[in-house]
Amino acid sequence: MEKIASAITIESEPKTTSTNLFALIKAPKVATPDSSHDQLRVLPAGGDRPSATSLAYCFADDEVSRYFLDTPDTAHWSALDKWHLHLCIMRSITSAHFLKGLAVVVGAKYEMPPGQNMDDSWTMFRCGMWTLKWKLSTEGKARWFEEFLPLLHKTKAEVLGERDDKSWYLVYLGTLPEARGKGYAKKTIEYVTRIADANGQACYLESSNDINPIIYGKHGFKVVKKIHLTRGEKPIELDIMVREPKPIQLNIMGSEPIVPASSPV
Length: 265
Hints:
The protein is globular, with a radius of gyration of 18 Å. By secondary structure, the chain is an alpha+beta fold. The relative contact order is 0.16. Helix content is 35%, strand content 20%.
């Protein structure tokens, strides 16, 4: 069977899922509220493959995703070879967040509690990210391990300073085309920003999509810096966005924080 997923031709259809939105978030250790009323559920260990496939579809034609696939030394690779590598990357990132982060799914009744860092050596080994050292091409490996990861790590540390390990990190948030326009992304972002506000914590993200500063701007994020991936034919620009914590109010019982009506979220 042949199926087109954005810019990638799929010659054998991967197993898909009914997941509508999948988000990966690096979070500090804080108490998180019950999210059942938001239809956000825990994605159980071992459930990463279907959700990683959904995430792979969401980012199939993303400039940054293609940056590791479309290199001079992969010109002879088939579209299916590149899809398998793309899927492998998404699975390793997803697995890392099961170990150390928060995986939120809207529509498939899943959620993951906050964790810590995903790029330490032990986590990279356990999630399988280390296998990219031989699955990526020579140039792809240089882009991933020598440029991409160090640049993101360095930039986040510079921008957040001493708050680096105390802030929320929105790593991936993708909605399948058929589920867009239903408010799933808004619901997920607000879930994170409510927790961040309640704990006085900033939120941080990178984005390569020109429309995202407008979308995230509605939730209080501001572009504070721009960085570039420069090993390709043309530089890829990423916006660095930060959302500072907003004042919160307590409900009439004083037990649960709510966001003021004047807040951007």
